[in-house]
Amino acid sequence: MVTSATLLIPLAVIFILFILTDVRHHHVTAARVVFELALCVYLWLLFDMTLFPINISGDAETLAAGGYTLQGAIATRPLALWYNWQQPGSLYQIVGNGLMLAPLTMMVGGLLLRFRRLHAALGLAFGTSLFIECTQLIMNFYNLGDRTFDINDLILNTIGGLIGWLVLKAGLAIWQRV
Question: Which residues form the VanZ-like domain (predicted)?
Fold first, then answer.
């Protein structure tokens, strides 16, 4: 079984690259370094929640070899969750997925000016969500995990990215007035 601890080294390298870039551009401040570290920790937690653990077994037959079809691995009824929001777990799923990528667009927008534009923030949220969902689909296909590709997650994560962008813009507006 592969755990999210395997991400610590790549995320440490990303953090070091952040610092080296800051030094190169003379943007090193304690607040920026803490912000970059918080982003790396957030990414680790995000991928830990969505992709890990990965079940690797040498004797496991892949689902593809066993006549597996993608129909069971893709949840394609995007509005069913919204209509049944009072069902146990539905509200948790709506709120959780709706807020999951809000910190991403806030933090990346705080660090990089080009992600302060709406289309860039939404592209980041949608692209990240699509990456996670496609990875879950592939992992399910090869019997490495039991997650599904869910259209609801794609929609809710993108809305969460929008929420994060709105909070960032409001925070920047308040910061500039102070």
Answer: 40-169
